[in-house]
Amino acid sequence: MLGRAVAEQAVADGHDVTCVARGVAGEVPDGVAWVRADRDAPDGLAPVTDATTRWNAVVDVSRQPGQVRRAVAALEPVAEHYVFVSTGNVYAVHSGLTTDESVPLLPPLEGDVMEDMSTYGEAKVACEAAVLDGFGADRSLVARAGLIGGPGDASGRSGWWPWRFAHPVGDGGAVLAPDDPTLPMAVIDVRDLSAWLVRCADSRTSGTYDAVGDPDTLGGLLSAARDVAGHTGPLVTASATWLAEHGVQEWMGEDSLPLWISDSEWRGFGAHTGAAAVAAGLTRRPVTETLRDAAAYEETREATDPRRCGLSDGTERRLLGLLGH
């Protein structure tokens, strides 16, 4: 989602854009040149790193340390600036309720390959280190993205709530939600993030930033989602203990309630302010616009692209029934 949005934004801003990819995740946007390459190959970037080629900027979204290390080594002689999209998962502590880029990091992954998502944060730490070591702090930008949402959000996390409020399955339009309205949570619109990344690449902005949405709460996001959907039915809430006892997952996945985190050690994941990024030019649209467009995307999803989070209709009806709704 983000890589495509960056390419589209860069073209819209008048830049000449080249995407380097294997070509297995769909077509590149109109107006973009495509170079087929496998970044896992030792010389995978050879087509874009010959001695006569110069790049004004590189935007990299990889999560594999080996890919980033090879890219940095190959591109440093021919590229002026490197923008790396990292993640808030790099932080070792997620319990603070108002935080910034000063939070300690996880140890970097030692190998070149992240085998599974259990070491996602460590892998991104290693990627960040490779970029900073190779390009230096003055020629690089690290954007630690928060939860990215909006149109094209295949994870469903930003679209599920407004979609569910538009299609309630409980009596009288009842919808089940966690009883946790003050949980810090924010969503950064993919279009806002991509526009900022392109501007930073163009202006050679350097530094490390939390690229996150406007600070909000789960309650605030659910209220915005209800407004987007025009939902007037009951909002039926249940405690974290009750939901866990009945098999409801947090955050995402099968039979989950998206955007919700009950684990106290992760309660501050959505609490980074993003103040430094805002000072560096990040602009953030109203979350209602993000949720509205994410919901519209949910409405167009094909039957072959099942949602990756949220409660099934049957599960939600059963749980609401247990709660008397």
Structural class: alpha/beta
Low-confidence stretches: none
| Beta-strand share of residues | 15-25%
Shape descriptor? globular
Provide a count of the helices. 10
Major β-sheet strand ordering: 3-4-5-9
The CATH superfamily label of the largest domain reads: NAD(P)-binding Rossmann-like Domain
Instruction: Give the rounded overall mean pLDDT.
Output: 95
The value of Rg in angstroms is 21 Å
According to DSSP, the number of beta strands is: 14
Distance between the termini: 37 Å
| CATH hierarchy, class of the largest domain | Alpha Beta
Look up the CATH topology of the largest domain.
Rossmann fold
| Sheet with the most strands, sense and barrel status | 4 strands, parallel
Defining key terms:
four-stranded parallel β-sheet, about 15% strand, Rossmann fold, about 325 residues, globular, 14 strands, alpha/beta, 2 domains, 10 helices
Describe this structure in words.
The chain contains ten helices and 14 strands. It is of the alpha/beta class and 325 residues long. The strands form six sheets. It has a four-stranded parallel sheet with strand order 3-4-5-9, sandwiched between helices. It has a two-stranded parallel ribbon with strand order 1-2. The chain has a two-stranded parallel ribbon with strand order 6-8. Helix 3 (120-135) links the parallel strand 4 (82-87) and strand 5 (140-145). The chain is globular, with a radius of gyration of 21 Å. The mean pLDDT is 95.
Question: Quick summary of this structure?
Answer:
With 325 residues, this protein is α/β, with parallel strands linked by helices. It contains ten helices and 14 strands.
